[in-house]
Amino acid sequence: MAAAIHKATKTRSSRPGWSVTFSHPRRSDARGKFGLKVRRGLGTRDDAEADRLIEQFNHILADESWWSLDRRTEAEQRFDPVVVNAFYEGIEVGKLKSKDVRDKIIPLPTPNEDGYSRVMLVGSTGAGKTTLLRQIIGSDPRRDRFPSTSTAKTTTADIEIVTAAQQYEAVITFMAEHEVRCAVDECLEEACASVIRGRDDVGIANDLLEHREQRFRLSYPLGAWQEEQTGKDMDSQYEMDYDEYEEEEPEVETLTDDEIVDVSELKNNAVRLREYVGRIREVATAVGGQTEEVHGVFQDLDNANKRQDWLENFTDRLYESQDFAQISLDIMDVILERFSLIESGDFKRSSTDWPIFWYCEDNDRSMFLKQVRWFSSNHDKQFGRLLTPLVDGIRVKGPFQPTSPELKDEDRRLVLLDGEGLGHSAKEATSISTKVTEKFSESEMILLVDNAQSPMQAAPLELLRSVGSSGHGHKIAVVFTHFDQVKGDNLSSYIQKRNHVRGSIGNAVSSLRETLGAPVTEILERQLNDNNFYLGGLDRPTQNIPKGFIKDIGDLMARMQKAAEPTDPIDLAPNYNIARLELALRDAADGFKSPWFGRLGLSYHEGVRKEHWTRVKALCRRIANWWDNEYNGLRPVSDFIRQLQT
How remote is the C-alpha of 78 from its chain's centroid? Predict the structure, then answer.
């Protein structure tokens, strides 16, 4: 039976030479079921050699006793290394800590040993964290464009910048291959569902090219969907219609020819995407027909629950389709090809040829950033080659200094930590991601970057609560960006504007007093009153920023460095009330379970709506595979920690 279900075949793909394709009996697909379709290069063009390797694959697939990781050592003595690596790699899926990988290549300096201050920038999406970071490291918004910024979710990887008087270095770590494969399958799944819902090619392509979580975008490595336009280009027409609202001159193009995807490559990418959409239509139509035979026609269902059940059955059948798996494998091959286009630096790869990290060093800043941008850029003229969505961490080290002479200081030693924003809505701010909170203890300053136009909304408030309740209130500081945009009939002077924004600090701390208690809120209030800054015009080149804001940036950077100074230890000891501990733990457990029962549809909880089944499934998939403990605002671990700290 095993030999009939799991059989290796020799195939041709975009890889040089022969490849092997087989359903892996011990690797799970995006549903969590065994039988993941795998394709691996055999490393040979010779037919006879390829047949010999395929025979070895089928020997392993036919005998279940070989399907255990414990027998890898024995397999290495009996089978070819290509066969052993392809079969056993990934059987035991775990989360490789990419931070540990980066630490081995470029260690993060510490205050005790090197006098460095580690500053963590955190704030709502779009508040201006990365824009502020650009000013601190002297990154020109048009020439350097590092790190990338945008109005949407842009920073999805950890960015760590170490200022040092030496040559430029970078180490960039990547998502694991199985995580990328899962994301690709989820994009394909959504695109197939779009076919069932009757969407056109544009809608199908959009669902394929952008993951619903908005963190994984296939348009970066595969290229954007190109509309076939007749007559005047649609974008040009829009630009003409809305040109009167342009306030600034358009940016001067700073990309060099070798950074732009050329016309022939764009055409090839467009042809490939249209082919994918066509194949997706065929797969979805075929699988949809099979589902209709059992569950009826999707469009005829008059009940949302029935449609949901229909789509669940449709999805299960999708993953059993060989054509569905073939599209996924083809996309993975194209993604892997994009890594080969990087000409500088060195890749460290796994035994299956998947990149683990990339390292580069250079004395020339422009050349250095030019190479790093392939892993961090979001420029649309580079779509089709960018590796940005595959990156989970960027660490760079070098003489990064502000461009303004009065801000430069060769003795300043900073480690700047940037990451994904907190989100905009109150729903997203129910708790702070563990990706953020785990860095609190590693930082000397936690810099909250907030928008002065709408200060201290849900996400910043939740961050303050998390910082205070975790015992890191003495590290908090706040910078209000977009201060130049604060306007009103009652705000005619700088002092009035500052007092208006500063008032939000007191209101925020007061609202937390009941939750955190007086001692903790006093620490937060004292810290925020002593460490608040007001900046504007950060999106401009430094020479165009008003001098007052330049001075404030200097004060902020001085405070950053001062955070590294050792503080006198406080003679304190914890005092636990054991009698009340059991009650506190019970209340925390109940406070966690009640809203989650509501999210799962098991009971009603005020203010909490039932989550869509696809989101819950995606969350469970990540937890079960040890990839992550959250998904798109669903944070059970963070929520439980929040209840324990409350």
Answer: 41
Name the residue range of residue 74's domain: 2-88
DSSP string, 405-462: GGG--TT--EEEEE-----SSTTTTSS--HHHHTTGGG-SEEEEEEETTS-S-HHHHH
Q: What pLDDT score was predicted for residue 242?
A: 46
Mean pLDDT of 378-386: 94
What number of other Cβ atoms are within 10 A of residue 407's Cβ?
A: 20
What tokens does 490 get? 């009652």
Residues 206-226 pLDDT 10s: 999 998 877 889 999 999 998
Confidence category of residue 246, pLDDT binned at 50, 70, 90 = very low
Same domain, 497 and 592: no
Same domain, residue pair 156 and 295: no
Beta bridge partners of 237: none
CA separation for the pair 26, 36 (Å, rounded):
8
* Strand pairing class (346-349; 168-174): unpaired
| Token output for 464 | 């303050």
Say if residue 404 is in the same domain as residue 377. Answer: no
Q: In which residue are the tokens 């508040």 written? A: 127
Low-confidence winner among 370-374, 426-430, 546-550 (lowest mean pLDDT):
426-430
Q: State the pairing for strand pair 117-123/445-451.
A: parallel
* Sheet-wide strand order for 18-28: 9-12, 18-28, 34-41
Beta bridge partners of 122: 448
- Same domain, yes or no: 611 and 512: no
One-letter amino acid at 254 equals T
pLDDT at 305 over 50: yes
Same domain, 500 and 534: yes
Q: How many domains does the chain have?
A: 4
